[in-house]
Design a protein that fits this description.
Number of helices: 1
Number of domains: 1
Radius of gyration: 12 Å
Order of helices and strands: H
Mean pLDDT: 79
Distance between the termini: 25 Å
Low-confidence stretches: none
Helix content: 55-70%
Strand content: under 5%
């Protein structure tokens, strides 16, 4: 998901995308467990 964004973004924007990706994965895990 993050890889497509990899080109032409600042490291700050990349951090944002990584944390968004992380939160999405986390919420999927939560949905699975509860």
């Amino acid at each position: 998901m993050v890889k497509e964004v990899g080109l032409g973004v600042t490291s700050k924007e990349k951090e944002v995308w990584v944390s968004i990706d992380f939160m999405l994965k986390l919420s999927e895990e939560m949905d699975r467990h509860f």
